[in-house]
Amino acid sequence: MYEYHGWVTVRETPTCDDEKDLEIKIHNINEYIHNLQWCNGILHLHAVNGEYQVVVSGLTNHKAQEANDLLYLYRYIAEEASGSYGLLHIWDDEDKSGFDNKFQVYVLVRGQVTLREDPYLSPCIPVIEDECL
Q1: From CA 58, how far away is CA 91, in angstroms rounded?
Q2: Spatial CA neighbour of 85 closest among 58, 48, 114
Q3: C or N terminus of the chain, fewer CB within 10 Å?
Q4: CA 55, CA 88: separation in Å to the nearest integer?
Q5: Distance between start and end Cα atoms, the chain
């Protein structure tokens, strides 16, 4: 199982300056999302109360190309709009690098995407569900 949930608030820069090029950056991000031809789960960019947000959520049987696409999208947003911030939570129960029982949390802030430990839902067994015997 490959589960993912994330959000990003899109901002042009981390400064208090007027975001004069934000609409161009929003257009570029929307174009990037469109070109992914996303067909699994939810992925959309929308405006809420004058702020733009990207929302992503889904669950597939196995990790597929979408996993890489998500990380590339977050990195693209970090480069395109360095004031953006958000989180991406991933649980891959078939992960071979030690994350099979943990959520991976990617943090997007100030133009960087970094992997962090999840203190809330991990280890998935026993925090979320019981071990199957």
Answers
A1: 11
A2: 114
A3: C
A4: 10
A5: 18
Q: What share of the chain is helix, strand, coil (3-state, %, to 5)?
A: 25, 35, 40
- Separation between Cα atoms, residue 55 and residue 86, nearest integer Å: 10
**Measured distance CA(94)–CA(117) in Å, rounded:** 18
Q: What is the pTM of this model?
A: 0.93
- Average per-residue pLDDT in the chain? 94
Could you give all domains of the chain from N- to C-terminal order, each with its CATH number? 2-127 (3.30.70)
- What is the rounded CA–CA span in Å between residue 9 and residue 98? 30
- Is residue 133 very low, low, confident or very high in pLDDT (cuts 50, 70, 90)? confident
Q: Enter the tokens of residue 14.
A: 């981390």
Q: Cα-flanking dihedrals φ and ψ of residue 100, to 5°? A: -65, -20
Angle formed by the axes of helices 22-36 and 65-80, nearest 10°: 170
Residue 36 identity (one-letter amino acid): L
- How big is the CA angle at 49 (ends 16 and 17), to the nearest 5 degrees? 10
